[in-house]
Here is the input.
Amino acid sequence: MGADNWAYCPQCRVKAIKAKEKLYDKADKAYGKKPASEYTAMLSEAEQPIKLDQTLREDYGIGVGIDGIFGVNYTASCTACDFRFEYNKGDIRAVDIAEDYVQDAENDNPFGYNYKRPFRFDGADY
Ligand SMILES: [Zn+2]
Here is the structure.
């Protein structure tokens, strides 16, 4: 399945900046000690723009479930480094529904635990 979005990875960004800092440090240390052409080449390499790819895969969902609970879930994972982040929250009641009518998914009872009549739905995934 495809990702909901691809974005730039914050951890890869910091790693790229740190790598550039090392190149600048290396050039600074070479100043006056190495031939000018070598120093200039090192500085030139440090001054090259940082290129980042959109390696951060984002998947998310948001909405009110059939049980009346509002939820949001978000996952981000980078394909280039070990960065991973998850946020899942689903404990806000968006509408006041009597417990009898709340879907009881664990018991595979879509009509609630206290139903007395054989309510039927039209076959869709409610
Ligand atoms: Zn990354």
Q: What stands out?
A: Residues 10-47 form one domain. The first strand starts at residue 5 and ends at 7. The mean pLDDT is 86.
